[in-house]
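Predict the 3D structure for this chain.
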Amino acid sequence: MSFAFAPDVPFVNSVFHPSDFSEASDDAFAHALAIAIFRQAEFTLLHVVPENRAVDVWSEFPAVRGTLERWGLLEEGSPRAAVFDELGVTVRKINLRDRDVLGAVREYLDERPTDLIVLATEGRDGVPRWIQRSVAERLARKSKTKTLFVPHGARGFVSMEDGTISLRRILVPIDASPPPRDAVIYASRAASLAGEDTVAITLLHVGDKNEMPRVEPPPDAPWCTWETRQEKGDVVEGITRVADDLSADLIIMATQGREGILDALRGSVTEQVVRRGGCPVLAVPAE
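Done. Predicted structure below.
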């Protein structure tokens, strides 16, 4: 089976980052903000406050302007309007009160769909502590949203200190199902974050060589180099081993389109790679 490039797959024009204001969220916030700035995308920060908490949390939101000033993208003391006037990014900070955190996030996304969700992950659970598997399906049932999982304390491709993007190597596991086409396309587009630097993209198949799909890389991505790699053995172990060998900055995985983010929450290959991959993982729902 072969998969070819399709030019009609949309890119990221909106970024959504739900945060619990924990230390683990800092890295995810930096990645979400950097992508929004690069794409001049709408950037939404959302925090859900338990109904029984009677404190003002607005001051706890990550400081977008302060971060951009530290990164050298805004002058110190810039007004709030400078984020849009100078960088072309609309920032929304949403504070909701609800006893069901996940339900509140899902309801918000139902009303205001986004192109990319950026989630912090921590520990061996591999998912934010406020996402419980028993209710995760509510977030996934209608969602076909790309989701970037950023592990706390692991190597990322955005520096929280200065906003530097270091994206040199991307790993894309491929198989006949789910179709890898969209994941490959987004790998080439994610590589554009590296600016003028060339990004090496490795297409990895773990399993029977005769079952490896033939993938045609996008023709309009001169900033990328491509290689195909074949490995035997356990799929998760093969992906994580090659990611470590390459010192991959990002793993991009196709997920079943009808299940979206749920693929990464209930024992799937994606979930296990999120737990063990050691770098950010972008889950891309296949058609």
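The radius of gyration is 19 Å.
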